[in-house]
Specification:
Layout: H1 2-16, H2 28-39, H3 53-58, H4 60-69, H5 80-91
Helix pairs in contact: 2-5, 4-5
The structure holds heme C.
């Protein structure tokens, strides 16, 4: 019974808890690209390829607004810690 309870706790945690801990000082190469590849690349490529550092940097204000402030992107939602990672990364000056 105890085991079943734990399995349930873990299953629930899997839905609501962040998929990975939020890094304190994220960089594009080690953190952000993995997020945008996962969450954005299915819709955004070409001129809005958010896995491309230079393109993201150019569009940082739009991305901050849509992902961190208004939360309208991605349309299907995203874990809170990933939004925070993107926000922190932009605020800290977008380290590559
Ligand atoms: C299911 C498809 C889909 C996903 C996934 C998605 N987007 Fe979008 N995004 C769109 C569409 C369609 C538009 C254009 C319509 C609009 O502005 O709402 C858009 C517009 C945007 C814009 C405004 C672009 C501009 O030039 O004004 C930004 C910024 C943006 N998305 C960022 C993101 C980021 C960052 C992610 C991932 C974290 C993401 N989107 C994930 C479909 C998506």
């Amino acid at each position: 019974m105890k085991q079943l309870a734990w399995a349930l706790v873990l299953a629930l945690a899997g839905c609501t808890k962040p998929s990975a801990p939020m890094p304190e000082s994220p960089t594009f190469t080690s953190h952000i690209r993995a997020i945008t590849k996962n969450r954005c690349a299915s819709c955004h490529f070409g001129k809005t390829d958010w896995t491309d550092y230079a393109i993201v940097k150019q569009n940082k204000d739009k991305i901050f607004k849509r992902v961190v402030k208004d939360r309208t992107m991605p349309p299907t939602g995203m874990p809170e810690n990933e939004r925070q990672a993107i926000g922190v990364w932009i605020t800290q000056g977008m380290r590559e």
